[in-house]
């Protein structure tokens, strides 16, 4: 579910690093003039691909893009972490009770998936 940077196309502008909510793209090469995306850290949201001015970012061959995020009420303890880390504030609910996700606000960035410590967030991929 990761993206990769095509080294020959990367001009080192840093747009991918700037837009990534997880800080995944990092300077590569000895002089940091190009960027790379460590596959094991990428959540596959696609924000980097959408912003790259040189079309230097593409999905890895085994890539699956995040399609839908839902919260499993039986696992959710209502800790509010998902709401606090979501840039769109898509998760909603009352502290101490299971949260749900407003699908119309969710951008499938994966931030809540990465931060949930209770395995309460379920994902579907394309």
Computed Rg: 16 Å
Distance between the termini: 10 Å
Reported CATH architecture of the largest domain = 2-Layer Sandwich
Strand order, biggest sheet?
1-4
Pick out the low-confidence regions: none
DSSP, total strands: 8
Topology:
Elements: E1 3-5, H1 15-19, E2 26-28, E3 34-36, H2 47-51, E4 57-59, E5 66-71, H3 81-85, E6 91-92, E7 100-101, H4 111-115, E8 121-125
Overview of the molecule:
There is one protein chain. This protein is α+β, with helices and mostly antiparallel strands and 126 residues long. It has two domains: 3-59, 2-Layer Sandwich (Alpha-Beta Plaits); 66-125, Alpha-Beta Plaits (2-Layer Sandwich). Helix content is 16%, strand content 21%. It has four helices and eight strands. The strands form four sheets. Strands 1-4 form a two-stranded antiparallel ribbon. Strands 2-3 form a two-stranded antiparallel ribbon. The termini are close together. The model has no long low-confidence stretch (mean pLDDT 90).
In short, what is this structure?
The protein is an alpha+beta fold and 126 residues long.
